[in-house]
Amino acid sequence: MSLQNCVAIDMGASSGRVMLGRFDLQSGKLALEEVARCVNSLVVREERQCWDVDALEKFILASLDKLIQQGIAPDSIGIDTWGVDYVLLNKQGERIGLPVSYRDDRTWGVMQKACADLGRQAIYQRTAIQFLPFNTLYQLRALCESQPEWLNDVRHALLIPDYFHYRLTGKLNWEYTNATTTQLLNSQSGEWDNALLEWTGANPAWFGKPTAPGVKIGDWKASTGLSVPVIAVATHDTASAVLAAPLTTDNVAWLSSGTWSLMGFESLQPYNDAAALAANITNEGGAEGRYRVLKNIMGLWLLQRVCRELAIDDLPALVREAEAQPACRSLINPNDDRFINPVNMVREIQDACAGQGMPTPATAAALARCIFDSLALYYRFVLEELAAVRGAPFSQLHIVGGGCQNPLLNQLCANACGIPVVAGPVEASTLGNIGSQLIAHGSVRDVTHFRQLVTQNFPLNTFIPQASDAYSRSWALFQSLTHSVKELCV
Questions:
Q1: Catalytic residue at 237?
Q2: Separation of alpha carbons 186 and 236, rounded Å
Q3: How many degrees, rounded to 5, is the angle at CA 110 between CA 155 and CA 128?
Q4: pLDDT tens digits, residue range 348-390?
Q5: Alpha-carbon distance 82 to 160, whole Å?
Q6: What is the C-alpha to C-alpha distance for residues 118 and 38, in angstroms, rounded to an integer?
Q7: Cis peptide before 210, with omega less than 30 degrees from 0?
Q8: CA 51 distance to own-chain centroid
Q9: Residues 104, 162, 237, 337: which is the catalytic one?
Q10: In angstroms, how far is CA 347 from the centroid of its own chain?
Q11: Helices (H), ranges, 170-326
Q12: Which secondary-structure segment (H or E) carries 417?
């Protein structure tokens, strides 16, 4: 048969989806069909912000069963999720506790202790990963200090997608692209850094050898007896999203826009010199040995929280109302660590504006416009940092992911950055997940070939920069904001 069916399980930090990718080997047609979606919300367990992985597993299994009941026999299954968080297993293979989320406050102060004990430059030279207070390096130290009674029971630590791999197949795996997000992988050897692991108090034996995307882990057995291969795709959702970003030249930067905004460029070599360290640039693993040289930006998490708190469910209407608001009337630094997980996001944004002597955004539309303007200007700030690190400007920015459906933010981004913005595809991480599977099957040659298929099969929209006096006037003020508050990545 010329038709291949690949199932992508794409679990984000705020929502999850199971999608069926149908690829016709003869025509090159690639299509997505939604199987199911779910909300992924934090739950409080023993005063910790945790992920309900049992509910997510139940959703995954129900979605796979739904496909089987429809008479569809998948050729393979792939899983991608957010990074840094992990699950602990005992010697019986049972989970120890619920995985604590990166948004929990247990790691506050741990990053500073690591830098004091080990040296900021030394950590960066070993890992080439940016300093974020919730990296796995600091989570493990917090775990070992707060739950020492667990340590003798732990046999394995699995990152979230590898935990789901284990639950589907019974096999252990540590996929490379997600492993790089931990700040525990040595950038030179590609192996776990024992010195860093020992500093955390964790046993290096909890972690197995990292594997590249494309490895078959095992098989999921359906209730009908059907065995379906489970392939370790680029399991960090951003790695999958970038794999599906139809980048055309080396001078194109990309922005994966969702709960988080991650902006970067591809490179065959990491950037971990003094300039990269000063800008806190990260070098995460990608497919085919490529590096994702990038920086994390708080992203649409701010808008998601505002909408939840104000019970807004018509996002397109809110975007239209925000477009009518004055530009740059109120600005925040979206990477201020006060926005990681505040009790009340609306009040936090209003307090930040008032504290800077700016008008307080009182309406939903004003709050949304504040977020959009602030993100657009911060995108410019990071784009200039990335250009300085690599020593060359960018001619285009390619936005992928759910956030690229926001035409106002796309246009504001083009205006702020002064270069064309190409938006699409929306389901980038899902597509990259499927792309990894097709490459593993040998149906697609490589990443470049897959990106050509994405361009042929999915619409892209271009936004041309428009002159903006408001952005020109606000740029110097915004730059001062980025240096006057404590950022999450400093």
A1: yes
A2: 17
A3: 80
A4: 999 999 999 999 999 999 999 999 999 999 999 999 999 999 9
A5: 8
A6: 41
A7: no
A8: 16
A9: 237
A10: 26
A11: 176-179, 194-200, 237-243, 274-278, 301-309, 315-323
A12: helix 407-417
pLDDT in tens, 283-335: 999 999 999 999 999 999 999 999 999 999 999 999 999 999 999 999 999 99
As a dihedral over the C-alpha atoms of residue 195, residue 198, residue 200, residue 205, rounded to 10 degrees, the angle is 110
* 97 vs 147: CA distance, rounded Å: 11
* CA–CA distance, 263 with 285 (Å, rounded to integer): 14
- CB 63 within 8 Å of CB 36: yes
What proportion of the chain, given as a percentage, has pLDDT over 90? 95
Instruction: State the residue for tokens 């297993």.
Output: 89
Please tell me the pTM assigned to this model.
0.93
CB 171 within 8 A of CB 179: no
Taking a C-beta distance cutoff of 8 angstroms, is the pair 261, 255 a contact?
yes
3-state SS assignment for residue 332: coil
- DSSP for 77-99 reads EEEEE-SS-EEEEETTS-B-SPP
The candidate with the shortest Cα–Cα distance to 201, out of 156, 137, 155, 108, is: 137
d(CA 267, CA 290): 6
